[in-house]
Amino acid sequence: NKQALAALTPDEAANCLAAESTASWEPAKRWDLNTDIGARQLKGRGDYARCNAGVTRVLAGLVQAEQPAVGGQSFVAMSLFYYASHFAQAAGHLPHTSSTLSVRELRAAARGLCSEDGMRLEARMAGVDPLTPIEAIRWRCFDLTYAAALLSRYGFSEDASVVQFLGEIDGAEVEWTRGALLAALLSDEKPRAYATRSRSHHLAHPPHPLCWLTTYLTGWPYSPRLTTLPSSPTDQQHLAHLEPLTHSPP
Predict the structure, then answer these.
(1) pLDDT, tens digit (0-9, with 9 covering 90-100), for 184-209
(2) 126 three-class SS
(3) What range defines the domain where residue 25 resides?
């Protein structure tokens, strides 16, 4: 999501910033995208439709990898997915009744957040959600738009209720490193080494194909990951991870 935001044009990024908010946006300086675009001070428009069009454009430009069908599986979304949805719930744009959310619900929440006046939103929500510092509030419009677009890109239907947005499972923090370790320990296969841009990871099986889609998205050492954890001999649970924006809590 870091490079997805940076890959937007200044006009697209302004559409993804809460209406009337201001923020510095520096893709070339911060993410080394080899562009001629320098630091810009953006004035938010909060235009969900145009923000979504920009995010969709960026995702469509990714090199495609073969993906398995997502039907019939249970998924857990973590990190940015969880932070953004948690904030939307606190702000009244998502129901508190369930941690399982559909793409359609995420889109509706993104549309609602984008349309709110940014200064009023910050005044209303400052200190309300411990997972969202005040400087991150103005970008939650983008975060939710991105999350919905990425899930749609994975192949989830608009109304599928198969993705849980969680920060913890049974009291333990959900993170891709723990999932990768469990996957390696539970596998009967001989571990093999798979190189990344920054280091070699020893996994008992190759990274899930969905991992490559999100790896292309960020290109960072701690890029989004997806691994498969067998929760029972007959059931598997997929854990999808998105690394948070720099303005989100670690």
Answers:
(1) 888 755 545 444 444 433 333 344 43
(2) coil
(3) 2-242
